[in-house]
TrEMBL record, chain A:
Any single biological process term in GO: transmembrane transport
Primary location group: membrane
Transmembrane segments: 17-35, 78-106, 126-150, 187-208, 247-267
Keywords noted in UniProt: Cell membrane, Membrane, Transmembrane, Transmembrane helix, Transport
Keyword Nucleotide-binding on entry: no
GO cellular component, one term: plasma membrane
Claim: Calcium is one of the keywords in the record: no
Protein name: Peptide ABC transporter permease
Entry-linked Pfam families: BPD_transp_1
Subcellular location: Cell membrane
CDD domains linked to this entry: TM_PBP2
Residue ranges constituting the ABC transmembrane type-1 domain according to the UniProt record: 74-267
Species of origin: Thermohalobacter berrensis
C-alpha cells in the first residue's frame, strides 16, 4: 500500500486531477442514495424539465430526476468495471503464471484457448450471450470477464517465462522451493505492476462495453446504467431538434467520458512510473 | 510487452472517439432555420415520392407482413371491387352494385377495359377465381371469414362483366368484406399450388395503379412505378419509392424522404413555415392491454380487471409517452372520432383508492409481454409503477416487435401490450374482438379474440348488430354493445395516437384520409387524380 502511495506522489498534475475525479466518482457511487433526495426509478416531477435548483440535471421524459439516475448509474458502471476487472484480472494472471511457469502441455492448452477467444468476434458474441443468458448485471459481468482475461494472461505469461530463467529462481528451485512459494516470493513482485495496469485497463474496457451493450438495448433494462439513459435519450424522437438533449444526452455522456478518461490517464501514469508499456 | 503499440493506440482512440462523439452531438443542433426542399415539380411529370422504407414482406396478398405497411403496399398493386374515400365505399373495379334477395345476393357490374400489368384483360372470371382461391388459400388479411365460416357460398358469372355472389346470410358488413378483397389474375394463380412459396415476379402482377419494379428485403427498399395502361384515375405520382432511413427527421429535413410523422416537440419547426404543411392523423391507431384469461384464470374476475382499469393512469400515458399527441381510449373500444362512438359509457378515470378497494388487500404478480419500441417500454414502465401502488407486481418482458405479434396471436402470454391501427373500421370489429370464439378471422394484429373471455350479453349483441341492415337499429345495438363492454372490461384500450403528418405541399399535396384509416401514406387515393 505504501508503495502505491509513493507512486501516486510521482503522478503528473493531470494524473492527480484524474485521480481526484475518480475518487469523487467512487464516493458518489458509494453514497448514491444519500446524495439525491429523489428516487432514481420513479417519476417525481413534470417530464423534461430543464435543470433547476430542485433538479440540478433536469428530468427525463417520464419525469424522473436525472441527477438521481446518473449517480445511481455510477454504481452500476463501477460495479461492472471493478467486478469484471477483478474476475478477469485475477483469473487471467493466474492462467498466465500457470502457463508461463509450467510450460509444456498446460502452456499449450491455455494459450490455444486464449487464441480461440481472440478469434471470436467480441461484440457479436457478447450480444448473443447477453440475449441467451438474459440481461442482468451479473450476467454482463460474467460475459465481459470471459472476453477480458486473455490480455492479462498473455502479458503475465511472457513476463513469467523470462523471470523463470533467472538464476535466483533456478537456485531457489534447487533448494526445493515449490511453485506456490516461488510465485508469491519471487514472481509476484515482478508482475505486480503489470497486473495493476491491466486491472485499470480492464475496468475501462468493461465500463465502455457495458455502456455499449446497454446503448444497443441489450443491457439490464431495469438497471438504469449510463448506457441505458443514453439509449432512452437518443431514442426520443427528434431529441436533437429539441432543447432536451442539453441535459438528457449530455449528462450521461459526460459522466461516461470523465470516468473513462480519468481511468485511462491513471493507467498511463502507472505505465510511465513503472517504465512499462503494455 | 507484445502489444505495446496496440494498447497505446487504444488509449488515444478512446479520447479521440469521445471527443468526436461530443462534437457530432453538438453539430446536429446548429441549423435552426431549415428551408423547405426546393425541388419543385410544377407540372408533376415524373414526380417521385420517397417514403420511409423497411421490410414489410413481398407485396402479394399472401406474403405481405400482417401489419398495415405491408398490406397497403400490396393494395397499390392489387385493386379490389370497391375502394374507400373520405366518406365511405366508392365504386372501383365494380362501377355499380346491387344487393338483392334480403341481403343474400350481391351483384357487381365491372368496368370494361381493365388490364392486368401483363396486358391481359380482367373479366368476371378472374373475380370468381379470386374468391374460390381465397377459400382454399386464405390471404393474410382475410375479410371473408365470419365466426369461423367463409361467407361466400357461391360465385356466379352472369356475363363477362357481371358477377353475382351468394352469401351465407344477410349481414351489414358483407359489402365491405367482399368489396375490399384484392383481385388476383386467374391466368397466373391457377397454377400456383402453394401461394406462401410463390415469390416469382408474376406474383406481383395485379390490376392496380402501380407496378412493383424493385424490392429488396435486406435493405427494406420498394419501388413502385405507375402502370401506364391503368383503367382508373390517372396517377399523380409517377414513382413511389420506399427507401431505408436511419433517422426519419434528419432524412426529411435533408429531403431524402417526403413525409414525416412528427412528434409534438418538434412541430414548431414545421408549423407556420410556408414550405411545410401539417395535418393531424385520425386517432385510429392505439395501444391496448390484453388479459390472457386462459393462462391466468384469476383474470376472469371482473373486479380484478377493473383494478387495472382504475389503477393505470391512462392520461399520464398520453402526456408522457405520446407527448400529448393522443387521446385516452374509450373503454368501449371505438375511439372518439369513430362515427359509431358512444360517448355515454363508463370512463374509468385513474383512481387509485377505488382500485385498492376493489383488490381488497390481495396481491398478484403478472408477466407483461411488450415489444421493444421505446414507447412500449415507457408504457410498461409507467404501468408497472402505478400498479405496484395497488398491489399488482408486474414483470416486464420485452421482445422484438414481430415476435410479440406472433406470441399474442398464439395466446402465449399473461398480459400483453400491443399497438396497431384499424380502430376506425366497421364496428363489426367489436364482434371480431370480444365475441368469444376460438377462430382466428384475420392475421392482422387488430383482429382476434381475447383468450378466455366469455360474456353472454356481449356475444348476443355482437351477433345481433351484424344482422341489422337498418342503420339506426344497428347503431343502437352498437351503442349498447360498447356500454356492456365498458362495464365488463375484457381488455384495456390504453390510448389512441394522433400523429402529426408533415409534408412539403410544393412537392406534393395530394394526401388524403379515408374515412376509417389514420394514415395518408396508406390510402391509394392519395396518389391518384381526384375529381
Amino acid at each position: 500500500m505504501g508503495r502505491i502511495i509513493n507512486i501516486i506522489k510521482d503522478f503528473s498534475l493531470v494524473g492527480k486531477i484524474s485521480l481526484i475525479a475518480l475518487v469523487i466518482i467512487l464516493i458518489i457511487a458509494i453514497f448514491a442514495p444519500y446524495l439525491s433526495k429523489y428516487p432514481h426509478d420513479k417519476p417525481v416531477a413534470s417530464p423534461l424539465k430543464s435543470p433547476t435548483k430542485e433538479h440540478i440535471l433536469g428530468t427525463d421524459d417520464l419525469g424522473i430526476d436525472l441527477w438521481a439516475q446518473i449517480i445511481h448509474g455510477a454504481r452500476i458502471s463501477l460495479i461492472v468495471g471493478l467486478g469484471t476487472a477483478l474476475i478477469a484480472g485475477v483469473g487471467g494472471s493466474t492462467i498466465g503464471i500457470l502457463a508461463g511457469y509450467f510450460g509444456g502441455f498446460i502452456d499449450k492448452f491455455l494459450m490455444r484457448l486464449a487464441d480461440v477467444m481472440i478469434v471470436l468476434p467480441e461484440l457479436p458474441t457478447m450480444i448473443v450471450l447477453g440475449v441467451f443468458f438474459g440481461s442482468s448485471i451479473y450476467n454482463i459481468i460474467i460475459v465481459l470477464s470471459l472476453f477480458s482475461w486473455i490480455k492479462p494472461a498473455r502479458i503475465v505469461r511472457s513476463k513469467t517465462l523470462s523471470i523463470k530463467e533467472e538464476n535466483f529462481i533456478k537456485i531457489a528451485q534447487i533448494y526445493g522451493a515449490k511453485f506456490h512459494y516461488i510465485t508469491i516470493k519471487h514472481i509476484m513482485p515482478y508482475i505486480f505492476p503489470l497486473i495493476l495496469i491491466s486491472f485499470i485497463k480492464l475496468i475501462n474496457r468493461a465500463i465502455i462495453a457495458e455502456a455499449s451493450l446497454s446503448f444497443l438495448g441489450l443491457g439490464d433494462p431495469t438497471s438504469k446504467s449510463w448506457g441505458l439513459i443514453l439509449n432512452y435519450a437518443i431514442n426520443f424522437s427528434g431529441i436533437y431538434f429539441t432543447p432536451y438533449w442539453k441535459w438528457w444526452v449530455l449528462s450521461p455522456l459526460i459522466a461516461i467520458t470523465i470516468t473513462v478518461v480519468s481511468i485511462a490517464i491513471i493507467g498511463r501514469e502507472f505505465e510511465k512510473i513503472f517504465k512499462l508499456k503494455i | 510487452m507484445l502489444n505495446r503499440k496496440g494498447i497505446l493506440m487504444g488509449n488515444k482512440n478512446i479520447l479521440i472517439i469521445s471527443f468526436i462523439l461530443i462534437l457530432s452531438l453538438l453539430a446536429g443542433c446548429g441549423q435552426d432555420n431549415i428551408q423547405a426542399n426546393e425541388k419543385l415539380n410544377k407540372n408533376n411529370d415524373n414526380l417521385v415520392i420517397r417514403l420511409e422504407g423497411g421490410d414489410w414482406g413481398y407485396p402479394t396478398p399472401f406474403l405481405h407482413y400482417r401489419r398495415g405497411p405491408g398490406a397497403y403496399k400490396m393494395k397499390l398493386i392489387f385493386d379490389s371491387l370497391l375502394e374507400k374515400d373520405e366518406k365511405g365505399l366508392i365504386p372501383w373495379l365494380a362501377k355499380e352494385w346491387e344487393i338483392k334477395n334480403d341481403g343474400k345476393e350481391y351483384i357487381f357490374k365491372l368496368n370494361k377495359n381493365i388490364k392486368w400489368h401483363d396486358g391481359n384483360k380482367l373479366t368476371a372470371d378472374d373475380v370468381k377465381f379470386t374468391f374460390e382461391y381465397y377459400k382454399a388459400h386464405p390471404p393474410v388479411w382475410n375479410n371473408l371469414i365470419v365466426n369461423g365460416k367463409n361467407i361466400i357460398e357461391n360465385v356466379d358469372i352472369i356475363d363477362d362483366y357481371t358477377i353475382k355472389f351468394i352469401v351465407n346470410e344477410k349481414n351489414a358488413t358483407y359489402l365491405e368484406r367482399v368489396g375490399t378483397m384484392p383481385i388476383i389474375p386467374k391466368h397466373i394463380w391457377e397454377n400456383v399450388k402453394d401461394p406462401l412459396k410463390f415469390y416469382r415476379e408474376e406474383a406481383v402482377i395485379g390490376c392496380g395503379p402501380y407496378k412493383l419494379t424493385n424490392y429488396s428485403r435486406e435493405q427494406g427498399i420498394y419501388k413502385f412505378k405507375a402502370f401506364e395502361n391503368y383503367w382508373g384515375p390517372k396517377q399523380k405520382v409517377d414513382v413511389i419509392e420506399f427507401v431505408p432511413v436511419s433517422d426519419p427527421i434528419l432524412a426529411f429535413e435533408k429531403g431524402d424522404i417526403d413525409t414525416l410523422m412528427a412528434s409534438p416537440d418538434i412541430l414548431n419547426r414545421y408549423e407556420n413555415n410556408e414550405g411545410f404543411k401539417v395535418t393531424k392523423n385520425k386517432p385510429f391507431w392505439g395501444y391496448r392491454l390484453i388479459f390472457n384469461m386462459d393462462n391466468r384464470p384469476e383474470l376472469k374476475d371482473k373486479s380484478l380487471r377493473k383494478v387495472f382499469a382504475y389503477g393505470i393512469n391512462r392520461d399520464e400515458l398520453v402526456q408522457k409517452v405520446a407527448r400529448g399527441a393522443g387521446i385516452v381510449a374509450s373503454m368501449g373500444y371505438l375511439p372518439k372520432a369513430h362515427k359509431w362512438y358512444n360517448p355515454d359509457i363508463k370512463k374509468y378515470n385513474f383512481d387509485i383508492e377505488k382500485a385498492r378497494k376493489l383488490i381488497n388487500g390481495k396481491e398478484y404478480s403478472f408477466k407483461l409481454l411488450i415489444g421493444n419500441s421505446p414507447k412500449e417500454v415507457k408504457i410498461a414502465e409507467l404501468i408497472k409503477l402505478s400498479l405496484s401502488k395497488v398491489g399488482i407486481n408486474i414483470e416486464v418482458k420485452s421482445v422484438d416487435n414481430k415476435t410479440r405479434d406472433g406470441l399474442v396471436k398464439k395466446g402465449d402470454f399473461e398480459l400483453a401490450i400491443i399497438g396497431h391501427g384499424g380502430w376506425g373500421r366497421d364496428p363489426d370489429l367489436l364482434r371480431d374482438m370480444y365475441y368469444s370464439s376460438e377462430t382466428m378471422e384475420s392475421n392482422s394484429p387488430a383482429s382476434g379474440s381475447l383468450p378466455g373471455f366469455y360474456n353472454e350479453k356481449i356475444n348476443e349483441l355482437a351477433l345481433l348488430q351484424m344482422k341489422q341492415l337498418n342503420f339506426d337499429e344497428r347503431k343502437e345495438t352498437i351503442y349498447k354493445l360498447q356500454e356492456v363492454i365498458a362495464q365488463e372490461v375484457p381488455q384495456i384500450p390504453l390510448f389512441n395516437t394522433i400523429g402529426y403528418f408533415v409534408f412539403r405541399p410544393l412537392k406534393y399535396d395530394g394526401w388524403m384520409y379515408t374515412y376509417d384509416h389514420h394514415y395518408p401514406e396508406h390510402c391509394k387515393l392519395s396518389y391518384l387524380e381526384r375529381k
